[in-house]
Amino acid sequence: MNGREVYADMSRILFTTFFLGVLASVSQGCNDTGFSSVISAQKNNDRGPDLNVPAPVASSGPIAVPNPGSPPVPVPSSPPVLVPVPAPTAAPVPVPVPTSVPVPVPAPVPVPTSDPAPVPAPTSAPMPVPMPSVVCDPFGGSAGGSAENGLEAKLTYLPSNAEAISRGLSTTSFAIGAPDVVVSPSKLILSQLNVSTRPFTEGFADSASGTKLKNLDGEDLIEYFSVQAESRVRLAGKDKEGDYEFALMADDGAILDLDPSMTGKSFERWVDNDGTHGNTLGCSTKRLHIAAGEEIPIRMNYYQGPRVRIALMMLWREKKASEARAEEECGMGRGDTYYFESGKKSASEPTSNYHALLGRGWKVLSPENFVLPNAKTVNPCAKK
Length: 384
What we know:
By secondary structure, the protein is of the alpha+beta class. It is 15% helix and 22% strand. The strands form two sheets. Strands 1, 2, 3, 5, 7, 8, 11 and 14 form an eight-stranded mixed sheet that branches. Strands 4, 6, 9, 10, 12 and 13 form a six-stranded antiparallel sheet that branches.
């Protein structure tokens, strides 16, 4: 047997010895930990390495050291150590970033390089022409009297498109504060109420300057106006103390309120000749006793409807208690030509019917019968 064969035999012996030592260690570990541990370890190895379980380390028996000069004996390598590999983690699902609605950026405002064009002013109803502060006797008459005599009046009117005109007019249609009513800043001074039926085309003009009153359309005010007068009536001249009836001859409507208490706080309706109509005589249904020196507060409202004729006369008559007969013409719509001839711009010529009325005791109140409502007021139209 040569040296090479001896070396091969010695290697087989050493390997066998080493292998038996390993089997002995494994068998001892199985007895200590039980068969189940081996099975569990085997399952763990099937699933993959467990980081918490240490890998078993094989114990070896005594290793024979070869004689010096013998060929090197190969040392069997230990079983490979299983290194745990972490389980693959799923890639994180990307969270979508919320998109917001884009905010529109306003376009830059162009800066004008030159002066901007003027903005036209909104159009409105034409403004009335400035009116005079006082109008003296606009319907004609004495245009004077004494400093204390006369009637003081407000002037109101309706625009031509006012709804009240189509509904039907009355004195209340022209009341201050009623719909569409325009109040003139001018004050009217009347010496008396003695306007016989006639055309009214000249309008209202200041007695001193001749300035005309205009409506909202800039036209002369000759229709759809109202005169709301106040005064005090008294006996004058040859008037006698007694019981008096009152009447208004008017075209169109007119009403008369009196205050028998003379306090200025207890007005009562005495004559109702309201409404749009031709020349009509409206009378009171009762009498008022008036003594010398007494001043009875009165309110008279008159309105002119559609152009062109007007009439406004205030009459009274003393009536004795024995005279029970009422005036037959009261409330009768006689029209424009019954009492006065038509066709004249100034004072019309009275007819026989008007003379008959005077024959039954009626007469127009004179300027001396009217006293301005405020004792401190001085008639600005009085003759110097």
